[in-house]
Design a protein that fits this description.
Residues 465-552 form the Rhodanese domain. It is built from 17 helices and 30 strands. It is α/β, with parallel strands linked by helices. It is globular.
Length: 552
């Protein structure tokens, strides 16, 4: 059997390695139009910012290593230009010599990845200081430009993972950064109220953030010296980074009659097979599917690409692995903040038809007396079943382990009540006695059963509709005087039992404190006293004020 793989980054090399581990009887050949193989795209910003000292750290393996280790022939700088699925033939161009080559296969794997999206103003033109962030040559070029030209100002288009990482790294190099985002928020895969926390941090650090903005015109040649936005603002710049996302490289697949899914990526089954029986697709060119909804999704990540490659390599050589879907879990460091997400966002859950409970949980990552620092967990659960559907977290420390626990729980269809019963590691330097994950589960479970939550957005909508409400601030008068929810009256928790008789138990009541715990205590008192409907404001006044700030 002759296995040919097109593409040699995360997915393609995983196919070859797993296939060889399973059998010594197959011929395995890999073609790639790039110069480098098996490199870390995600590490590029950190090489640019010199956190990674040598480019060799991002390219630990080469074709010679693969040949010795796996007896796999990898041909770099070879572009596959045509697939004939009937003859099982490939047309290939050697990019170094221009030579045309024909090759055959028994099984073909498309690992052609994704190409960076180029904004309209930059299409079909080249400048010496405009860079994509997609491969090792890009990394070398950006680092060389920074070292040689000492830019003072940089403009970054796109506020996803790569855009934010590049903003951090260039800013740390002493470069003034302007971040331009077409959409209404940074990090489009998060809910706006969580993404706003990231935007605030960027602005506090000194990054200029322009939302709902595009570049209409590029000024200067062969070096860009300014960009003009669609609002006619001229932004002086010494370099431009294009980080406006990627799209799957499906040209070869389409020409070969392979079905493209609704996401725009190649449609595959759980064994990574396309509609053409002898052709598989893996990595950033292929779509995945949601573990929660079962519907196709496209989230190009190296971790998913590796899994897909391993599955295809196993299946091709007689194995029984299957792709089990993904949650779209991701994490990024933005200066001293970690930002993570898994599963469905609030918006996605509602669009999928779920009736959900939404929790904002603000808790320290470890014991206060050992320097615990707040992290914010936004978690959602299905009211009908109690199943946890997704979570987003921002914080300084401990974000990674909490999102991984939640991703694991969601993968195994945990309910909110199950989170509370997890036996997580506890010691004061690492966690609180009631870990933020446990507390999130407890509070969500309470919300589903007896203690309903209300988000700042929901509260404000009720007020805008002139719904009759009584809002109880259960904090101290001193805290209330500093800032409070609009329309709230101050009844400190210690006085609530006595003063409850002055309140109307038939009116919808909202209790709150600074973050949520005392508000929940007040909610319990009123419910036990027979109040008809009592909500606790999720995330308390702190979360409410953040939401109000976002809406200004």
């Amino acid at each position: 059997m002759r296995i040919v793989v097109i593409g040699s980054v995360a997915a393609g090399t995983s196919v070859a390695a797993k296939a060889r581990r399973n059998t010594e009887n197959a011929e395995i050949v890999v073609y790639d139009q790039d110069k480098d193989i098996s490199y870390s795209v995600c590490g590029i910003p950190y090489f640019v910012g010199e956190e990674v000292e040598s480019i060799d750290k991002l390219t630990p393996r080469n074709a010679t290593w693969f040949k010795k280790r796996y007896n796999v022939d990898i041909f770099t700088e070879h572009r596959v230009t045509h697939i004939d699925p009937y003859k099982k033939e490939l047309q290939i161009t050697n990019l170094q010599t221009g030579q045309a080559i024909t090759d055959t296969y028994d099984v073909l794997v498309l690992a052609t990845g994704a190409a960076p999206v180029t904004p309209e103003a930059f299409i079909d033109q080249k400048w010496d200081n405009v860079f994509q962030v997609r491969n090792i040559q890009n990394a070398i070029s950006i680092r060389a430009f920074v070292d040689t030209h000492k830019p003072k100002k940089a403009t970054i288009l796109g506020a996803g993972f790569i855009g934010l990482e590049m903003a951090e790294q260039l800013f740390n190099e002493g470069i003034e950064v302007t971040l331009i985002q077409r959409g209404k928020q940074v990090m489009k895969h998060m809910d706006p109220d969580m993404a706003f926390r990231v935007e605030n941090l960027l602005r506090d650090k000194g990054i200029r953030v322009l939302l709902e903005t595009t570049v209409a015109e590029v000024v200067g040649t062969p070096f860009v010296n300014a960009v003009k936005t669609d609002t006619s603002e001229i932004i002086d710049t010494d370099m431009v980074i294009l980080a406006t996302g990627v799209r799957p490289n499906t040209k070869l697949a389409q020409e070969a009659g392979i079905t493209i899914g609704g996401t725009g990526a190649v449609q595959v089954d759980k064994k990574m097979r396309t509609n053409v029986s002898t052709i598989y697709a893996v990595g950033d060119v292929a779509e995945s599917y949601s573990l929660i909804t079962g519907k196709p999704i496209y989230r190009p990540l190296g971790s998913t690409a590796n899994k897909m490659g391993r599955i295809a390599g196993d299946v091709i050589t007689g194995g029984c692995l299957e792709h089990r879907g993904i949650l779209g879990t991701g994490i990024v460091r933005v200066f001293d903040m970690a930002v993570a997400q898994t599963g469905l966002t609030e918006k996605e859950a509602r669009e999928a038809g779920y009736d959900i409970a939404v929790l904002y949980n603000i808790k320290p990552d470890k014991a206060d007396y050992l320097g615990g620092i707040e992290l914010t967990i936004k978690a959602i659960a299905d009211k009908a079943t109690g199943r946890v559907l997704g979570a987003q977290i921002t914080g300084i420390n401990g974000v990674d382990k909490r999102i991984d626990v939640l991703a694991t729980a969601i993968s195994f269809k945990a309910k909110a009540e199950d989170l509370f019963h997890l036996d997580l590691a506890y010691a004061p330097p690492f966690a609180t006695t009631k870990d933020p994950v446990l507390y999130a589960g407890m509070a969500l479970d309470n919300a589903l059963k007896r203690n309903p939550l209300i988000t700042p957005e929901e509260l404000i909508k009720k007020q805008q509709m002139n719904e009759r409400l009584q809002i109880i601030d259960a904090r101290s008068p001193k805290q209330y005087a500093v800032s409070s929810v609009e329309g709230a009256i101050n009844v400190p928790l210690a006085d609530l039992r006595e003063k409850a008789q002055t309140l109307d138990p038939s009116i919808s009541t909202i209790t709150y404190c600074n973050k949520g715990v005392t508000g929940n205590a007040a909610q319990n008192i009123l419910l036990n006293l027979g109040f008809k409907q009592v909500f606790n404001l999720s995330g308390g006044n702190k979360n409410y004020q953040m939401y109000r700030h976002m809406k200004k």
